[in-house]
Design a protein that fits this description.
Distance between the termini: 67 Å
Radius of gyration: 32 Å
Number of helices: 29
CATH architecture of one domain: Alpha-Beta Complex
Strand content: 5-15%
Helix content: 40-55%
CATH superfamily of one domain: 2-enoyl-CoA Hydratase, Chain A, domain 1
Strand order of the largest sheet: 10-11-12-15-16-21
Structural class: alpha+beta
Number of strands: 21
Shape: globular
CATH topology of one domain: 2-enoyl-CoA Hydratase, Chain A, domain 1
CATH class of one domain: Alpha Beta
Oligomer: single chain
């Protein structure tokens, strides 16, 4: 539909690309508003003057122009919108009213006067829905006296003898957010029994009122609980603070009481420790996806690039890559629905669906003369939490992104597959930047490497006391296979349990930096009386999946979780009795640093300020990426070879000398080679059919000194002379100072 709008807009423009009255005449007022809301003037500076000059030429043009002016923050189209309110076309009146309800017109005298005039001049015979909408608009944009006047009008409507008038007034009154009386609640309950949209709206408004009542009841109960003789009640203080914010704070009217109470609860919990907090429904949704990173879809990372919905990178085990989608492809439509100027969330929602279904997309790729249609099957997509790469010398490199479901099984499968090839000399488990996850998965990972009955971690809580978690099966990986674990200051929680336990039991050698120091257990606690929206659990996994139908109680078009409290309920202790948790006093000051100290400490290199400034200049110009893209385009096989291993030889890069000369840089040729190769590793993933593990220089043994030291330790344990591995002899970073462990 938006493309049709765009074509129409190119006919007989008023000036500066504005649509003509002729092109708008065939559109409904609702379509005019959609067109205005999607209008993009780019860098055009002249449109505003053309808009002002064109006001008054035609009702639909006035609606369009008033809308785009209001979206830009200007109220100069208000007079034309007010004229539409006085007209006979009910659809135009409603559209004008919807525009005057925008934030631009809040406290605008002319807008308040125009809406008040409508309320004074129109009778209920003109339609109670319109008058109710006008009153709620006045409440939204008006000052104190106008807001009170609007509420009086709505309350008077709820006492009418006509059912339609009563219901319109009750719905509008409840939408304003004020607390409604028992009489109005009864009217809403009657509307809620209707099967249509009005019934759903009434149900949602009733639930909002119920939530407010629950909050007030909680405040009263807590106030009674905390109020003691000779002291002011804690909840009384909170209520006074909320009232002061609502009445006096400059931004107080932008927040609901529920939002402020959530912030108060969050502040209370964070005062206890850094990891307890109040989670909003949006945060709960993200948390659930992090723990269960699966969905039904085509399998691709996407974003809007240069105005087009673009495949940033396909998931190489997913159906999009198998069907032929590649990095940089633009998706122009989904099932005939244009993606142009549409929000990413809406496009992604349409791409997702039940596994086993199909979706038809229109794709354009650089070099094609016209778009092509592709039919892509949807599958259950699991975001990769384990990335792997077999490095030279038989070293299996595993990067574990998070401790989500089945990560222990995935690690075992990867090692078993590599071992079956007969070339496996050792394993590197990279837990750097891994924030943790599920406790039982941390135990499962240790179960892969340790014999039965070995203590992994002990938890101590106020409710459950002490509980020890031990390995449950015989080691799944032969103890003769050496294991190095990479850690840094962003390795936390489950990462610290695994690295600490395997290090203490002598099964792994740890390399890198001291870990974060989060040795605590958090549980999500549901709040009584506030529930998730109901859904049809088609696959019976107990988790809402994005393709599953649900009851949209608040009609926001999204599945809503209820808020949760994330509460620290226990501390971790390693097998030797030590705690990895950073100890703090009552004010949050660190008393004792926690974390796991690596056996071999290796830090990542820092660039001097001058180098950073120069890199910022060249990266901003995309100099390295452009050169890497040229190599990939001219010789894809060589590009893959260089990305995997280049021997630190700039001579292997075609055209390197003139490229380096043209940079006019203070950087060394070896530095330019490193950054060019970094861009190559990002670019050749499609050609390889898989991405490289790690991020940036992390995971690249030529540039990553922590990984390089892990490799040294593995080969030393395996009895392999590292000098006999050509790639390491020529390309491994210099080893850190200090004795070799092993």
């Amino acid at each position: 539909m938006f493309v049709a709008f765009l074509i129409l807009s190119l006919q007989e423009p008023l000036g500066a690309g504005l649509p003509s009255p002729t092109s708008l005449s065939s559109l409904s007022p609702t379509e005019v508003l959609k067109m205005a809301d999607g209008w993009d003037f780019g860098n055009d500076k002249a449109w505003r003057q053309h808009a002002l000059d064109s006001l008054g030429t035609d009702p639909k043009s006035d609606l369009f122009l008033g809308r785009i002016l209001a979206r830009s923050g200007s109220t100069t189209g208000g007079e034309a919108l007010a004229a539409l309110l006085r007209g006979e076309d009910s659809l135009l009146r409603n559209a004008a009213l919807a525009t005057l309800a925008l934030e631009t017109f809040v406290l605008n005298d002319e807008a308040q006067a125009a809406v008040t005039s409508v309320l004074d001049s129109h009778s209920l015979e003109d339609g109670p829905e319109f008058l109710a909408r006008a009153a709620s608009t006045l409440h939204g944009i008006g000052d104190g006296s106008h807001r009170r006047s609007a509420l009086r009008r709505l309350r008077s409507m709820t006492t009418s003898e006509q059912r339609a008038v009563r219901e319109a007034g009750a719905l509008a009154l409840a939408r304003t957010g004020v607390t409604v009386s028992a009489q109005i609640t009864e009217i809403l309950e009657g509307v809620a029994s209707d099967p249509g949209l009005r019934g759903l709206l009434a149900s949602s408004l009733l639930e909002r009122q119920e939530q407010k009542a629950r909050y007030r009841a909680k405040l009263r109960a807590l106030e009674e609980l905390f109020r003691g003789e000779g002291q002011t009640g804690g909840m009384e203080i909170l209520q006074e603070v909320l009232s002061s914010v609502a009445l006096r704070h400059m931004e107080g009217d932008r927040f609901t009481q529920e939002e402020l109470l959530a912030a108060a609860a969050d502040g209370l919990l964070r005062r206890l420790d850094p990891y307890s907090n109040f989670m909003t429904p949006e945060e709960v949704k993200e948390f659930m996806f992090d723990i269960h990173p699966e969905y039904g879809g085509i399998g691709a990372y996407v974003n809007t690039v240069d105005g087009f919905f673009t495949i940033v990178r396909p998931i190489y085990s997913g159906p999009a890559f198998e069907a032929g989608l590649r990095t940089g492809d633009r998706i122009l439509s989904v099932e005939g629905w244009s993606t142009v100027e549409q929000p990413n969330d809406e496009i992604i929602r349409r791409l997702k669906g039940p596994p086993g279904s199909e979706v038809k997309v229109e794709v354009f790729r650089r070099g094609w003369t016209r778009p092509r249609e592709m039919v892509i099957p949807r599958r259950k997509i699991a975001l990769p939490v384990l990335q792997q790469e077999m490095l030279p010398g038989g070293v299996l490199y595993l990067e574990l992104v998070s401790f989500s479901e089945d990560c222990g099984d995935r690690i075992h499968s990867a090692i078993a597959e590599a071992d079956a090839s007969g070339d496996l000399e050792g394993v590197i488990l990279d837990l750097r930047n891994n924030p943790g996850g599920l406790l039982h998965e941390a135990v499962q990972v240790c179960d892969v490497f340790l014999p039965r009955g070995k203590t992994v971690v002990t938890t101590l809580s106020r409710e459950e006391g002490e509980e020890t978690h031990t390995t449950e099966t015989a080691a799944l990986v032969d103890a003769r296979i050496p294991l190095s674990i990479l850690i840094n200051r962003h390795s936390a929680s489950a990462s610290e349990i695994v690295s600490g336990a395997l290090g203490i039991h002598g099964r792994a050698i740890t390399v890198g930096e001291r870990t974060h120091g989060k040795g605590s257990v958090q549980n999500l606690v549901r709040l009584k009386g506030i529930r998730d929206e109901r859904w049809n659990d088609q696959n019976r996994n107990g988790i809402w999946d994005e393709w599953e139908r649900y009851e949209d109680r608040n009609e926001n078009g999204e599945y809503d979780f209820a808020p949760r409290v994330k509460l620290t309920i226990a501390y971790y202790f390693l097998p030797d009795g030590s705690t990895i948790h950073t100890q703090r006093d009552h004010d949050g000051k660190v008393l004792q640093e926690g974390g796991v100290e690596p056996e071999i400490k290796v830090t990542m290199p820092n660039f001097p300020p001058a180098t950073l400034r120069e890199l910022d200049r060249l990266v901003g110009r995309d100099a390295f990426r452009d050169f890497a893209t040229e190599i990939l385009a001219n010789n894809p096989e060589l590009a893959v070879e260089l990305a995997e291993y280049d021997g630190r030889d700039v001579g292997r890069y075609p055209g390197f000398a003139p490229f380096f000369q043209g940079l006019e840089t203070i950087l060394d040729p070896t530095d330019v080679r490193s950054w060019t190769r970094l861009r190559l590793r990002e670019s050749v993933a499609d050609a390889r059919g898989r991405s490289f593990p790690g991020n940036g220089f992390f995971g690249d043994y030529q540039e990553d000194p922590q990984l390089a030291e892990g490799i040294r330790q593995i080969l030393h344990k395996a009895g392999t002379d590292i000098a006999m591995v050509v790639e390491y002899a020529t390309a491994l970073p210099a080893r850190p100072q200090g004795p070799e462990k092993g």
